[in-house]
Amino acid sequence: MTAEIISIPRTALHDQVANRLRQMLVEGRIAPGAKLNERELSEVLNVSRTPLREAIKMLAAEGLVELLPNRGAIAVELTEADVRNTFEVMAGLEAQSGELAAQRITDAELDEIRAMHFEMMAAWTRRDLSNYYRLNALIHGAINAAAKNPVLTATYRQVNARLQALRFRSNQDEDKWKRAVGEHEKMVAALAARDPAAMRNVLVDHLNHKRDVVIEQLRAAAQQQAKA
Questions:
Q1: Is 34 in contact with 165 (CB distance < 8 Å)?
Q2: 102, 22, 12: which is closest to 62 by C-alpha?
Q3: Which domains are assigned to the chain?
Q4: pTM of the predicted model, to two decimals?
Q5: pLDDT in tens, 172-220
């Protein structure tokens, strides 16, 4: 009985640490290319190094960090070519998810997406980027789940993990953020109409716009570094 009681929190702790590290990476508190300092992270997260190392391995499997021999772990930094290639695949996965979801979504699933959309709009009104992104990601995940294709879902999660930080930062421009919100309203409308073609089109446009913003940001950052 004692062993069972101890083993459950260990697993929960491992997952909690991974979630908190993932958020730090996505929100840029750990910069792309930065080394993950185990001593500092243990203090910040108030955990021992064992669950921390397990969490880092999880994030490495997701593609968020890279494990280097004799150097530890670093936050993944994608090149412009990496971004183009990954968004190209992600746009296809999102489009397929949306098309199938429009055909297969239940009323309960649609109601849940609508509820998350209203919450997301409230976060946008407050300019609360952290909660906006959290709800945004949940909505995209719910659309993928409504497609009811486990192979598609597994592939979607693997590819999407590489883009989470970039998708978060793409909403930091006010005009582009407003456009993204409008595209989300079109997604809800297309799902409600059970219109696969409209859903596919809006998701492809949405991902292509994200890609363009991310590439623009990468180029601007490179120019700043060159001037420094």
A1: no
A2: 22
A3: 2-75 (1.10.10.10), 80-227 (1.20.120.530)
A4: 0.77
A5: 678 888 999 999 999 999 999 999 999 999 999 999 998 998 888 888 8
